[in-house]
Amino acid sequence: MVLASALQWIIPIAGLTAVIFAGYLARDVLRRDTGTDAMRDVASTIYEGAVAFIRRQYTTIAILAVAAAVVIGGVIYLVETRDVADVPDLAGAPIAIMTAIAFLVGAAASMASGIIGMFISVKSNVRTAAAARRSLVEAVQVAMRGGAVSGFLVVSLSLLGVWGIFTAYSTFVGGVGVREAPFLIVGFGFGASFVALFAQLGGGIYTKAADVGADLVGKVEAGIPEDDPRNAGVIADLVGDNVGDCAGRGADLFESTAAENIGAMILGVGAFLIAQAAGWPNPEAWIFFPLVVRGFGLLATIVAIFFVRGREDEDPMNMLNRGYWVTTLLSVVGLLITTNVMMNTGAVVGANGIPAWIWFFLAGVVGLATSVAFVYITQYYTAGSWRPVKEIAEASRTGPATNIISGVAVGFETTAVTAITIAVALFASHWLGQQAHLVNTAGHDVGGIFGTAVATMGMLMTTAYILAMDTFGPITDNAGGIAQFSRSEESAREITDRLDAVGNTTKALTKGYAIASASLAAFLLFSAYIDKVNLIQTNRGAPLLTSVNLADVSVFIAALIGAMLVYFFSSLAIRAVGTTAQAIIVEVRRQFREMPGIMDYTQRPDYARVVDITTRAALRQMVLPGVVAVATPIAVGILLGHEAVAGLLMVGTIAGVLLATVLNNGGGAWDNAKKYIEAGHLLDADGKVLGKGTMAHAAAVVGDTVGDPFKDTAGPSLHVLVKLLATITLVLAPLFIR
Amino acid sequence: MVLASALQWIIPIAGLTAVIFAGYLARDVLRRDTGTDAMRDVASTIYEGAVAFIRRQYTTIAILAVAAAVVIGGVIYLVETRDVADVPDLAGAPIAIMTAIAFLVGAAASMASGIIGMFISVKSNVRTAAAARRSLVEAVQVAMRGGAVSGFLVVSLSLLGVWGIFTAYSTFVGGVGVREAPFLIVGFGFGASFVALFAQLGGGIYTKAADVGADLVGKVEAGIPEDDPRNAGVIADLVGDNVGDCAGRGADLFESTAAENIGAMILGVGAFLIAQAAGWPNPEAWIFFPLVVRGFGLLATIVAIFFVRGREDEDPMNMLNRGYWVTTLLSVVGLLITTNVMMNTGAVVGANGIPAWIWFFLAGVVGLATSVAFVYITQYYTAGSWRPVKEIAEASRTGPATNIISGVAVGFETTAVTAITIAVALFASHWLGQQAHLVNTAGHDVGGIFGTAVATMGMLMTTAYILAMDTFGPITDNAGGIAQFSRSEESAREITDRLDAVGNTTKALTKGYAIASASLAAFLLFSAYIDKVNLIQTNRGAPLLTSVNLADVSVFIAALIGAMLVYFFSSLAIRAVGTTAQAIIVEVRRQFREMPGIMDYTQRPDYARVVDITTRAALRQMVLPGVVAVATPIAVGILLGHEAVAGLLMVGTIAGVLLATVLNNGGGAWDNAKKYIEAGHLLDADGKVLGKGTMAHAAAVVGDTVGDPFKDTAGPSLHVLVKLLATITLVLAPLFIR
After folding, report:
1. ipTM topping 0.95
2. Which of B675, B671, B31, B60 is nearest to B411 (CA)?
3. Which of A14, A337, B350, B675 is the most buried (most CB within 10 A)?
4. Smallest Cα distance from A705 to chain B, Å
5. DSSP string over B366-396
6. What are the pLDDT digits (tens) for B308-343?
7. Chain B interface, mutation test: which of A217, A387, A405, most B Cβ atoms within 10 Å?
8. Cα separations in angstroms, A136 against A130, A316, A493, B493
9. How many A/B residue pairs have CB atoms within 8 Å?
């Protein structure tokens, strides 16, 4: 059918439209009112700090990425001989160069989307603060549009990048068609995850070290309020929101969308071969399918942005939810069109005489439903009105120890509903896929796995919107900080406080979403790894990898090490926050001591020096966990072989997803238990309010501080680690084959 | 060879000798001086509380066990038809009755060893406190001998129980020989783990709820010292040491030794068949081997007890270590004799012309070396003089939040060396086993797996000694409490304080040991499960289970649920401590309020009421986590089948071992960071000591309290959970086969 070929043009059209739309949003945000002089002053200080950090961080990352590209190219040149190459004709130098180029393009695109998104978000902060002086709805719109710039850029650059390099390789390189190209572009995903790992680690360490350090030395030691201008660490804290939450999460989701698209395309090759053998029309549609779905998701999000509106007295969360539901419903329509047009199985029909495309459409709907489920699960566990947060707040009455014990119990508990939801989604999408009766020439049913891939694609359709909501978080957080710092009107601070609370929820939602998509995608990427290994084994006439056998001692050992890695990596990330925070505390203390005018506002603290110290310390601290994350799977793969490393990948993913859930949700619940107490909801035995300044509040602050590095450093870094394991093993598979 | 048959008599001889020796030790302890009237008074109060709890707890457990035996018998009767029975001739009622009997015998033996051990340990407390008034060495000996009663009874009852039921079934039941019997006695292991689960959960919840509750309401709220007689919760706290640490850990290790012996015997059947086919002498020696090794371990420990002696000014840890090294070295000799005599491979030699028995002897030495390695690893992470504990103490200077963050980082970090040590031990023992060239008739090398089994057996040779050291902990802890409570002489309290610190270390060591043996054993029990499934599959002519394929969606889902289960179970256990502690706090507060004479010693607090409330609450709270632990593997097995449940078992074990490591070592490090500060080792910037009463100490107390339910409730309960998963799947395998 011609329609299926035509639909492929949705990919560049949607991608470019989204880039243009991001430009329109950026222009809309940038031309808005920037508020009072005091606001502009603090905003420009934040801007300088953020730019200084990002410049140094991305310089470091760029150097690491170029070095990594050379090493990867070299290793592939040496290892990927004719014997073990995906495309034997390209063995040696050609495949090494193509992988290195894909790696660098992926790394560069990830860096670009991170930098631009961060730039706009820093500019949106002050404009949100200024808008809050006039109107809640306007403030919501400014923050959401600023966030959407990141969202659109990340998703469209990932889409255009994968599509571009795929098209380039399949069109211009001899011997490479649509069948081979997916295997050759895995370097793009690896490059993206490599950058994401260091972006998330460096930003995550920076933001939480600054937060913890500034709070401990300001609120606890000196007894001045949060975001008070007398605290020399407060600008570093505000800078941290931008470099950690914005740039870090942007890189994380860039990498998700890239890696999972490539994985789905590799699985699409299996369907392509079936379609070719059976003579179905448009076999290559199966390979392009993931990208087309993503394109529809972008278009749905563009429409949805215009639905973010409401009344002044409305809960801002409702406005954001409205847009989310529009995105979801339009995505269902897009999915229906795509599966109907592109999944033509000729005369073959699925179970019960129902066409295959309907089964796959339903699998995609399972993915979208999973995304919705996680939005509500995360709200239940981390929002103030439900049992878990209340339980932690109640436990705060007997001090910090019971607050911590209760928070850990809640964090552990959240794994149950998370795991069960993922299990149901995987099982359902796999079952639906099996009903499509997609059987390859060897007689294996590949529909089940492809069903899980379609579910992942369905889930990821809303990524741009989710990411916009996520970036809304740090923008409003900063806007609140700017309002407080510039001693803005009470009414404006009330509005930014409301937005900040909503931002906390949206940030938590994104993490739940990222975790759920990582788990669905794990299975997909794992299957892609097996496909790649078997492509190589077929080429060399070696026995296929049909099973990753946990009863094999090497696989078991690798699985044990994979599960250990997520703890050890988290330990390094958490300790890095502690070490960096200590450096900040020492410096702020010094300024209080040596500059006595700070406390009565006659002397301006040296903010820049704290920013500089934080920057150096965070960048130094990000290297060790990053190197451990990259080196462990490679070492295990070389020592124990390609089957064992698959065990490391799978069990490491399971362990990483669960530990990230514990850290993210535990941290979110602690944060909101503190807010619950501050809002005056906790009562003592006589019905008196236990609010700010009580022992219970102090206990809740301890929990909140403990949760900070959990939910904003270690947890999000684990998302990246999990996907990095998948892309490393995909790219370096030839190195592990014995 | 006649010698190999003769050596089998070591099993009953060593078992009975150990029982008699335990009787001698008990008599020796019981006839010692019981101190002052005040001491006897508090000791008898503790005794009453402990007996009351144990009576109610074991009544509940007995009811649950009988109900479980009926259910298991019924299920096996219905499910284990001729088609899926291990021994087809016994299908239906006979096998159901035999399994139910084995279950009940295992449960009863476990309960007996727990009750007797606890009884002696409660009696040893006051005698240790009395001895401390005279001599350090005498106090060490009383506590160690009291602990050794538990150690010997647990190991010998487990050995005699397994041997007895094995001999009974293989001798008196028609159609059952040594080849079939190992499969028929797995019910014994299940019964033992069933009891251990509830004993450890109930005791663990009791002990930490009492500890946390009494500390919070006494030390924090009322400002009176630990173990002060005015605190109505303090007797419950002292009772808790006995019912949690003694009875709980005893049940845990009873179950380990039973389950792992049976698993090793099942693997021995593989070697037995090879030996039979090849006509080697004494094929049944391969099946008896694990029990003989255990017998030698008991004899080694009896000798070692006499080496626990030293000078008055010596570090008590040295005296205990001396005995440990004697046990280890004698165990090496025992292992050498056993492997040499029992592992006769006729004309077949292993790699490089070295006899098979030498390879297996070396595998056993790997196990003993692993045990030694864990003793030192645990010391590094939880003893006061090394980096991790110091790091936590330093972090306490900036308050409870940084103390907690630092402790979590240390806890996570400990997984690295744990996992690597286990990986090396598994790899080495598997490799050594492979060198023995033990090839079965189907051409499969079974030596590798058998090597890991021999390593596990080697490691477990020192169990009785380790358990004696472990029980030394609560005995000295209680002795300290009694000395404090009865306001004993300063010199006696100094000695009990020193012993208490050593006891903390030995308790931590045991947990490291239990975890390491659980990991080695996991592989062994997992292989036993596969052997059992394949025995059934062979009988019914169905395809064998040759692989547990992680790439299969059902296996992946089951693995995810297995890893989730350990978090969810821990969450329930930790929450149970919090709930129970709240009940204690409310009651002690009420007594302070309504009985004003307590504070000036004119009124005696109602200790019994607190004990009673704690007992009821702990028993109520142990049911839910216990039921979740038992029900989850059964549900997954029924829904997803026998291959998937193997995935749950393996990945659940990996996740459980690592999470238990985090909880045990994190908790231990927090505890010792507090002690480090109390000992005056922490200095501020000006070199002044930051000791008791400082902010830093208060922060460290928070960490210690958080660590309590981690290291003494959730962590140890996870050890049991991991082994319960293995015994459940072993017993109910026929239920899961499709």
Report:
1. no
2. B671
3. A14
4. 6
5. HHHHHHHHHHHHHHHHHSTTSHHHHHHHHHG
6. 888 888 888 888 889 999 999 999 999 999 999 998
7. A405
8. 11, 8, 11, 66
9. 247
